[in-house]
Amino acid sequence: MKKLPQLTIASISIFLGFTFWGAGMAKLFHDHQFFGWIGPVWLIEELEPYGLGFYGRFIAFSQLIIGYLLVTTRYKLLGSIMMIPLIGNILMVTISLQWSGTPIVLAFLLFLDLILLWQYRDFFRPLIDESKSKYDIKTRKTRTVNGHLAWLAGLALQISAIQVSYWNWIVACGIVLMGLVLSGLSFYVDRILTKNHDLRIT
């Protein structure tokens, strides 16, 4: 498979990210009032009779964080790697509870995730060799510490919005949007700081 255009890679990342981020938020928001297309939003309640409510929350927070890594497109590689065990955990739950149809959806999402991983295959050879590899890792855009911090602040707003949703749904959605914008601005922070650094060098 040839390397896909950046727009295609970003689109796959956003789709996967929205799918899992939305699913996690919907499980954790008050009365499950959040946008998402896969469920069930009542997974935690479904698992509580088996003493697995905490496990259900773990899955929900994992979906939120891993999905956010992808929907913001800043950490596509990290998110796509973490997606593998996440899908495996969800698959085991759905098989154990005998939910029909869900494994097919998960197989499709796993296929998209593998496409993402293939685009970053140059990172994996050093891991396989467990040493410095003769195969070069392709150059990517520079990331800065301040850019990372801006992204983390956006993630923190997502988590805080969950608690706010028990008080006011509209305010909670506003906080979610603010977090998305802040994380998106992390790329702008990178560009500004990198440009200033280059100017100082020259």
How many β-strand stretches? 0
How much of the sequence lies in strands comes to under 5%
> What fraction, in percent, of the residue positions are helical?
over 70%
Secondary-structure element order, as H and E?
Answer: HHHHHHHH
Category by helix and strand content? mainly alpha
Q: What Rg do the Cα atoms give?
A: 19 Å
Largest sheet: none
Unreliable residue runs: none
Number of domains: 2
How far do the termini sit from each other?
40 Å
Note the overall shape.
globular
| Overall pLDDT level | 88
Q: Number of helical segments?
A: 8
Itemize the secondary structure elements and their pairings.
Blueprint: H1 6-28, H2 43-47, H3 53-71, H4 76-96, H5 102-119, H6 124-129, H7 145-164, H8 169-201
Structure commentary:
There is one protein chain. This protein has 2 domains: 1-139; 141-202, no CATH class. It contains 8 helices and no strands. The model has no long low-confidence stretch (mean pLDDT 88). The protein starts with 5 loop residues before the first helix and ends with a helix. α3 packs antiparallel against α4 and α7 runs antiparallel to α8. Helices cover 72% and strands 0% of the residues. By secondary structure, it is mostly helical.
